[in-house]
Amino acid sequence: LLYNDKKDVPPVIETETGPTYKLQKARLGMRRVRPWVWAPFTNPARTDNVSFSHWRRVADEGKEYPFAKFNKKIEIPKYTDIEYKEHLVSET
């Protein structure tokens, strides 16, 4: 048992009856279930046009692949040997 400095016994019943911090139960089954389908897709970042499949909602059937917005192409700078030696090589 837990004691304080006066060696009092803890109360047997709950002393606080204020609001509790418990979450309400989830209301499952209140809406109609949205149907899913196993659908093929192509990744626009790939150049080989390979087709993959994944689960997708029927309502999202005609939409673009959601991760296509992350397909960024950047230009990588190219230097000649002379430019590299002049500007990018440190002397230390």
Automatic annotation (TrEMBL):
Example of a GO biological process term: chromatin remodeling
GO cellular component, one term: Swr1 complex
GO molecular function, one term: transcription corepressor activity
Protein name (Swiss-Prot/TrEMBL): DNA-methyltransferase 1-associated protein
Sorted UniProt keywords: Methyltransferase, Transferase
Superkingdom per UniProt: Eukaryota
InterPro entries the record matches: Swc4/Dmap1 (IPR027109)
Organism of derivation: Acyrthosiphon pisum (Pea aphid)
